[in-house]
Amino acid sequence: MRSARLVQVGAKDLSPLRFDLGNRTESQIPGVLASQGPSFLLFCHNTPMTTADALVDWFEGHARSLPWRTEPRDAYRTLVSEIMLQQTQVDRVAPRFVEFVRRWPDLKALAAASEDDVLAIWSGLGYYRRARLLHRLAREVVGSGRNQLPEDIEALRTLPGIGDYTAAAVGSLAFGLEAPVLDGNVQRVVARVTASDGDPRASGGQTRMKAWVRKLFPGHHPGVVNEALMELGATVCTPSRPRCDSCPLLRCCKGYQAGCPEEYPPPRKVRATEHLRWVAVCFVGSDGRWLLRRVQEGPILRGLWLPPLADLEAEADPVSVAMGLVPEGLMVETGTMFGAVRHHITHRRIEVIPVLVPTLDADLPAAVWQWSRPGEVLGGTSSLFEKLHKVIRNNEKDS
DNA sequence: GACCCGTGGGA
DNA sequence: TTCCCAAGGGT
Predict the structure, then answer these.
(1) What fold is seen in the domain A274-398?
(2) Superfamily of the domain at A75-263
(3) Nucleic acid strand C within 7 Å of A53 CB
(4) Which of A129, A257, A271, A364 has the most CB atoms less than 10 A away?
(5) Nucleotide C10, nearest residue via CA and C1'
(6) What is the pLDDT of residues A5-19, one digit of tens each?
(7) CA distances from A132 to A34, A40, A48, A150, A369 (A)
């Protein structure tokens, strides 16, 4: 097997288009040359195209255009994107990322921000601890007299919110360090290519997979190899119905050869879902603003601003429960129940019953209460606020 | 290692 | 509808 490189004459950045010649000679691919014009030269190699070559070539031709994929790669922007992308899909992250780095373009600016402002931008993204830890990281780095991230995997790893994955991602993508990343995508790709039956999440599996990724580094930028594996997992080697016919690793994929790539990796254990019912008391003032309370206790949504919430027993009357939550000093009319809103928080499945309670404006302690509407909250809020707001607004329109 | 955290989209 | 899961980290 031989490979070829197509290089533009005089091009400053030699990022050659590589492709596999297979059993053909260069004279048998005139179409490629013709389409590229006379300013290209073809170099043929008698060395086989490696798995890494195929992967990197595929990535260079198929990488999605994403706001954090700038050249040169900025370490701060890489960090912000990686934190946002933890357990969160690209399409949801992209607009938030743009907003975030426009407002806080570097670590110093982020360190100077208030946590409430950071949470406000983060609202709706979920896993709010990520935002708090990122903010803490910025203050730690800037407070220690530096304004830049350390160019060292171990040093990165000690910063708040940075674990094995994020340290390797920032180190390799931004600094070119040879650290293999193992996210869910890469674990799936490697499990399929190697037809590995073991649990990729167990420590033994992690060590083996990292070694497999490391073998792809020689001759390539480690960040490009890492990102290519993740991109492949996200767009081709998908959990269900992988598009194997478009995969650059097809010929070396043991899972494909076995005819069952989807069976790798083995499924994770499922956690039982817990069903909850809440009532949400929607105090709405004459100007349309809602009364929000900072969530004080409990494991969920702590510190965020939401309409007052309370557990709802099976036989309880939502309106009665809601009226019991009227804060002192607030003049209200009677409450009206609306159709339930569904909200999922990790393994919990929550049915939230909105009760609209029109109210006269009143001043309440600002540490715990604020009047606001979606998009204007001073501090963090959950997408649940928007869901409740939408239900009540739509129903009011009907009547 | 087990369990915790948000959210929305696709199958 | 229900289930799975997505560029994980902290405890």
Answers:
(1) Nucleoside Triphosphate Pyrophosphohydrolase (3.90.79)
(2) Hypothetical protein; domain 2 (1.10.340.30)
(3) no
(4) A364
(5) A161
(6) 554 444 433 344 555
(7) 55, 51, 48, 20, 21
